[in-house]
Amino acid sequence: MTDNTGENDALRAKVADANQQSRQRLASTSGNPPEPPARRCDECWDIKRRRAAALRADDRQEAARMTTAMGVHQRRAH
Ligand SMILES: [Zn+2]
């Protein structure tokens, strides 16, 4: 009876596939992003924004100041 064995294998494969799919769904809905917006520090965000603006304006001195400010702030506040 080789038919029976083949059916069981097919069923096992289907179940394994369904399990994997539900695991992937769980991971994508409840997985924590590395930097959740709600918990982002206001000052970090402000420094990042000012540094990005300085880079856009090609203001390297201001960008460097913001990089330093971020380093200092990270050490003090985090
Ligand atoms: Zn911060």
Helix content: over 70%
Strand content: under 5%
Helix-strand topology string: HHH
* SS elements, strand count: 0
Most strands sheet: none
Global shape:
rod-shaped
The tally of helices reads: 3
Mean pLDDT value? 82
**Which consecutive residue ranges, at least 5 long each, have pLDDT under 50?**
none
N/C terminus separation: 66 Å
Number of domains: 1
Radius of gyration: 25 Å
The hetero compounds bound to this protein are: zinc ion
Supply the helix-strand structural class: mainly alpha
Description:
The chain is mostly helical. The protein has 3 helices and no strands. It starts with a helix and ends with a helix. Zinc ion is lined by residues 41, 43-44, 73, 77-78.
Could you give the topology of this structure?
Blueprint: H1 2-30, H2 42-56, H3 60-77
Nutshell version of this structure?
Helix 2 packs antiparallel against helix 3 (60-77).
Task: Spell out the key features of this protein.
78 residues; mainly alpha; binds zinc ion
